Amino acid sequence: LGSNERDHAWMDEGINSFNEDRYMITKYGEDKKGEARMNKLMAAIDLGRMNARDVSMLTYLLTASYDFDQPLKCHSNDYLSINYGANVYKKTAAVFFYLQQYLGEELFDKCMQHYFSEWKFKHPQPKDIEACFEKISGQNLDWFFQSFIESNGKADFSIRSAKNKKQADGTAQVVATVKNYGSITGPCNVTTVNKDGKTQTQWTAPLAPGKK
């Protein structure tokens, strides 16, 4: 893919970082031990418990917590020095993991493979990767490409309530209400754990700021 790293660095180094993190987890597992072995500094400061995805998220959050972060759409020349690594590399990796979890790994991979197939040996633009993902997923993904690429708004979801609701057949259903306290639109996942330890995760539709 002939991505233009100067104009759209997230499409080049950022997506590469996502794939690198994904490889590290696949190669060394979620137990994080391989990541610590490969990076003595991480082990020294007790980050060995974190996998590659966690480290990317933490790196981005360090800048976001001080509101230093910038939109991923920025030209390379416009980034603060701290953000070229923390945003271009690490924030892109973090948000693409978010999209992968929302779409599901199988569908996400089909989208990414279609993007590569359509644009190999050519020069894709941001609208092109969005078009490929929307075509294969059958979904409008403006919320992702506008909120998480075009802006530096923050996602912030919270469960407002969770109640057991008895069904007509005697079984119980958990009904949870989630609110978006952030400044950008996005979906939120809610995971329930039953008595035998099995988990089930469901995603909301993309929620606008302030919506439940």
SSE order, one letter for each helix or strand: HHHHHHHHEEEE
General shape: globular
- How many separate helices? 8
Percent of sequence in beta strands: 5-15%
Distance between the termini: 40 Å
Helical proportion, percent range = 40-55%
The main sheet comes to: 2 strands, antiparallel
Low-confidence stretches: none
Could you characterize what this model shows?
By secondary structure, the chain is of the alpha+beta class. The chain has 8 helices and 4 strands; from the N terminus they run ααααααααββββ. It has helices at residues 9-28, 33-38, 40-44, 52-64, 81-103, 105-119, 126-137, 142-149, and strands spanning 157-166, 172-180, 189-193, 199-203. The strands form 2 sheets. The protein has a two-stranded antiparallel ribbon. A two-stranded antiparallel sheet has the order 3-4. Strand 3 (189-193) and strand 4 (199-203) form a beta hairpin. Helix 5 crosses helix 6 (105-119).
Key features of this structure:
single chain, 212 residues, alpha+beta, two-stranded antiparallel ribbon, 4 strands, 14% strand
Write the layout of secondary structure elements.
Elements: H1 9-28, H2 33-38, H3 40-44, H4 52-64, H5 81-103, H6 105-119, H7 126-137, H8 142-149, E1 157-166, E2 172-180, E3 189-193, E4 199-203
Antiparallel strand pairs: 1-2, 3-4
